[in-house]
Specification:
With 381 residues, this protein is of the alpha/beta class. It is built from ten helices and 14 strands.
Length: 381
């Protein structure tokens, strides 16, 4: 296909204007069996968006050939023959989330070229026998001043490190990120479209989020190797993935930092006798989590003496215990958050403790200790 044909395809099916260039190239290849370059698709999308922006596209209701996703319904009426017609206004298509994805993923290729190389800068690690999980879920960066949120997060991190048991000889750190790290996804809404009232532009909140994660990883990596797992939240499913890609690119040349930013909605991590599953917690029923773990990672579930799930979402600490066959048990931990309540939460009477945890796991004995750090507010100051 040449660019004229691609443009005509987009005029006939303007719903595809919401797609990014890579996605459109894949769609055209599947439909027409021809390889279409992403550069050609980008040019066609740009030109047709400019051409259609603000115009009306009329579509018969019975037609299934034209995609209307991403277009705004303008009006509908019945023709003389009895057919229902709808008009869609081609607005809001100048910058889609997939455009941002194309930009970010292509930029990451350049980021990796400039990834810092930390060789020789860190003191030799001591030999340890325990894993320390730093738990800071549901930060919701952007809901309040990102600088203040970063200050609170780093305060909790340093406090947690200072409160670890003296007997804990650290082998590795485990750092789950995501989990509503950001308060909104695209267009200042949650992933499903609930409006959010961020106090800064999305560019600033995104930049502050990945910089904070890099600072936390660097702080931990001065002590021991760090394993990062990226857990998508219900507020930031797309942007949490982008943050994970940036953090992965930043530490591309650091052999002591690993990042699991796979596309699976749940992540798993095994350390010695302990196997931990991670999910945000808004989708899965707690009663189903043990079965989900056993089905999705049969080997590690079967050969781990201790199994746990770590969830966020509800901003407060809660632990459930589900007995399986009266022999093996899975502990389900809902983890607290240091995020402050906004006006809506205060009006509803929600008042959870702003808390963070560092959980310590022995290679052979599983969970052995925890430290906590709180943000004190109001009368508790």
């Amino acid at each position: 296909m040449n660019i004229k044909e691609v443009k005509q395809f987009l005029r006939d099916k303007p719903g595809y204007l919401k797609e990014g260039k890579s996605r459109l190239s894949s769609i055209l290849e599947k439909q027409f069996g021809k390889n279409i370059s992403t550069d050609l698709c980008a040019e066609a999308i740009r030109d047709v968006r400019e051409e259609l922006n603000g115009t009306i596209v009329v579509i018969q209701d019975k037609s299934t050939a034209i995609s209307t996703e991403g277009l705004a319904l303008n009006s509908m009426w019945q023709s003389a023959s009895g057919e229902w017609l709808k008009s869609y206004k081609a607005v809001g298509v100048t910058l889609s989330e997939l455009d941002r994805e194309d930009f970010i993923l292509e930029s990451l290729k350049d980021f990796k070229k400039f990834s810092p190389t930390p060789f020789g800068k860190r003191a030799p690690y001591q030999t340890g026998d325990c894993l320390v999980e730093i738990s800071l879920p549901d930060l919701h960066i952007g809901k309040f001043s990102p600088d203040k949120q970063k200050e609170e997060a780093m305060h909790c991190l340093n406090t947690l490190l200072s409160r670890l048991p003296a007997s804990a000889k650290i082998d590795r750190f485990l750092l789950p990120i995501g989990n509503d790290l950001l308060n909104s996804d695209s267009n200042y809404t949650t992933t499903k479209g609930t409006p959010q009232f961020d106090v800064v532009e999305y560019q600033e909140s995104f930049r502050k989020a990945w910089q904070l994660m890099v600072d936390i990883v660097n702080t931990l990596a001065e002590i021991a190797p760090v394993d990062v797992v990226v857990v998508p939240g219900n507020h930031d499913e797309a942007r949490a993935f982008y943050v994970g890609e940036v953090v992965s690119a930043f530490f591309e040349n650091d052999p002591n930092v690993t990042v699991d930013n796979s596309l699976h909605p749940r992540k798993y991590y095994r350390y010695g006798a302990t196997f931990i599953g991670f999910a945000h917690g808004e989708k899965e029923k707690p009663a189903d989590l043990t079965t989900i773990m056993a089905r999705e990672d049969k080997y590690n579930y079967a050969y781990s003496e201790y199994t746990e799930w770590h969830l966020g979402h509800i901003h407060k600490e809660m632990t459930l215990l589900k007995v399986v066959d009266d022999i093996q048990s899975t502990k389900i931990r809902f983890l607290p958050s240091i995020c402050d309540e906004d006006t809506w939460h205060k009006a509803m009477g929600y008042n959870s403790v702003r808390d963070s945890h560092a959980n310590v796991y022995s290679k052979t004995e599983g969970f052995v200790a925890t430290a906590n750090a709180r943000i004190r507010t109001g009368k508790n100051k």
